[in-house]
Amino acid sequence: MREKRIIRQNEKDLIEFLLKELNLNPEEYPVDEYVDEYEDGKMGSISLGGDVSAYVGDLIQVEYVDSDETPVVITLTKDEKGHLLDLDFWKVDFTKLLEYPTPDKIILRGNV
């Protein structure tokens, strides 16, 4: 992971959207002001400040199609204390994320 940076508004918006899709109150899942990027931000994955070794599971997994028509799987994870851990992006061809997803472009396939 790199040096921490301030979380971007589009990242906060996506997290809030995913929590609401789970009927969870975003106020009960505070997000740190600072995040760490994985892979130098290549795919968009960020650590939300939890203990990576305390991963317990996925809260929700959704899909998105990037502007190059490549599918992206987005997963919001939690730690053993129930805190948000990661907002993880996996672009199926491992290339750089070209356009950050907005809630209106998310494809819901059912919760984890």
From TrEMBL:
Domain DUF6984: 4-101
Pfam families: DUF6984 (PF22480)
InterPro entries with a match to the protein in the record: DUF6984
Protein name: DUF6984 domain-containing protein
Organism encoding this protein: Dyadobacter frigoris
